[in-house]
Write a structure and sequence with these properties.
Distance between the termini: 18 Å
Helix content: under 10%
Number of helices: 0
Length: 435
């Protein structure tokens, strides 16, 4: 599937930058022929691990390890052909990984050496999480759920037999957790426990047609689920009810990472999304129609990593950002005196058009509120968010790729919330897509 590409090029003044200096949001960090990258996890700003698959009878590589924020990587091989789908650092010494064949491996020296631990199953294990040094949970195929209370030395059965594959899990503490997955008839699965997995209850996601890959709760009440076909579900009452959130894409969404409630990322098929409002709305930070991303992790609010596979040709790839995924260039020495939304160009267009807007000069050279650029159809339905966040004064330009939308008239709206006056200003123009 071809995805929407929203490439934001922002022109604004940063006094400590040289003219025309370009900063890209997510750039390639490392690639490896014939070894798709599955999962990534860091224990601090420097030390991290990537798990690798292999194709085309390539030499075995289980993990890549860095101790300098990804500048250099060491290949780690253990005597197995298992593929590890998830990695979890309990602390900077102890790290676990789970994968196919019921494989659980544990390292006590930050991933340099590994030992196998019995899971009591030979099915694929997809997710692992520890809520403290001792208490951990695992989700896998064939209704497999596991629990440990002894720092991962032994794993007890917490299965809830729905004849399904559990893929993603998240526990907010040692008792309360949510698991998502898929049934054998390809409908979705959503279950919750409040007693550490001894008992499970089914929850209604509000839709059954989409497979669910990952789940994360921001607190006791607010949670996010990501799945295929661009599905994002959000709850504000602990999972009793879920709402479908329009993410502006129909591509698979595989992995959620939460730095804080107002900084949430999702990685998936050809894209990275971000939310700055507890998952209520999303905008696109990265797009590449040959790179499928399986996992995303941020070691701090600015520094992030995403791992996956590039299809042309097949090889593993890892991306990195050092500015929270924002893209910008130096100002073009213009100081706008008013808010301006320009007519898109070209117009009519097929399928890509550019949208330009200006934010006026102020004494502190920042706007007072949040800026949002949205796309609507003629019924007034919001179909895409191109940008949402705070911007400095200057001239900005973005592209909208309407490849996934039919011919017709669309509206684009620049919304500016002025926190000083507590007013919302909206500027709207029409554009015409002709295919």
């Amino acid at each position: 599937m071809k995805k929407q590409v929203f490439a934001m090029v922002c022109f604004f003044e940063l006094l400590n930058l040289l003219p025309n200096e370009l900063y890209t949001q997510w750039t390639q960090l490392i690639s490896n022929p014939d070894h798709p990258f599955m999962s990534i996890c860091f224990c601090n700003s420097n030390t991290g691990l990537i798990s690798a698959n292999r194709v085309n009878n390539a030499p075995n590589i289980n993990f890549l390890r860095t101790t300098n924020a990804g500048n250099d990587w060491q290949e780690i091989n253990i005597p197995t052909n298992f593929v590890f789908f998830d990695i979890y650092f309990v602390n900077c010494n102890t790290v676990f990984a789970v994968g196919n064949g019921g494989s659980i491996v544990r390292s006590t020296n930050s991933g340099q050496n590994w030992s196998f631990i019995g899971a009591g199953t030979n099915v694929a294990l997809h997710s692992i999480q520890f809520v403290n040094d001792y208490t951990g949970f695992i989700a896998g195929n064939n209704s497999t759920l596991r629990y440990s209370s002894d720092a991962g030395i032994t794993w007890l059965n917490r299965d809830y037999n729905l004849i399904c594959d559990y893929i993603g899990l998240h526990f907010i503490n040692s008792t309360t957790g949510t698991v998502v997955g898929r049934s054998l008839t390809n409908t979705n699965i959503l279950i919750k426990t409040t007693n550490g997995g001894l008992n499970w209850i089914n929850q209604n996601p509000g839709t059954t047609q989409y497979l669910l890959y990952d789940v994360h709760f921001l607190n006791d009440n607010t949670g996010i689920i990501a799945g295929d076909n661009g599905i994002i579900l959000r709850t504000v009452n602990g999972g009793n009810n879920w709402s479908v959130i329009n993410a502006g894409t129909t591509l698979d969404l595989r992995s959620i990472f939460v730095s804080d409630p107002n900084n949430i990322w999702i990685a998936g098929e050809y894209l990275i999304l971000k939310s700055t409002d507890t998952g209520f709305s999303w905008f696109q930070q990265y797009s590449n129609n040959s790179i499928y991303l399986y996992d995303i992790f941020l070691s701090d609010l600015n520094t992030g990593y995403a791992t996956g596979m590039d299809f042309s040709p097949i090889h593993g790839i890892a991306l990195k950002t050092t500015n929270s995924g924002v893209t910008f260039v130096n100002n073009i020495k213009e100081e706008p005196i008013d808010f301006t939304l320009y007519q898109n160009y070209p117009n009519p267009f097929n399928p890509i058009t550019k949208i330009k807007f200006e934010l006026p000069y102020s004494k502190n050279k920042t706007t007072k509120g949040n800026i949002t650029l949205k796309i609507y159809d003629t019924t007034g339905e919001e179909i895409a968010i191109i940008f949402k966040g705070k911007l400095t004064q200057g001239v900005f330009e973005t592209e909208w790729d309407a490849s996934n939308f039919p011919s017709g008239i669309y509206l684009y709206a620049l919304e500016i919330y002025d926190s000083g006056s507590n007013k919302m200003m909206t500027y709207t123009k029409k554009m015409v897509l002709i295919k």
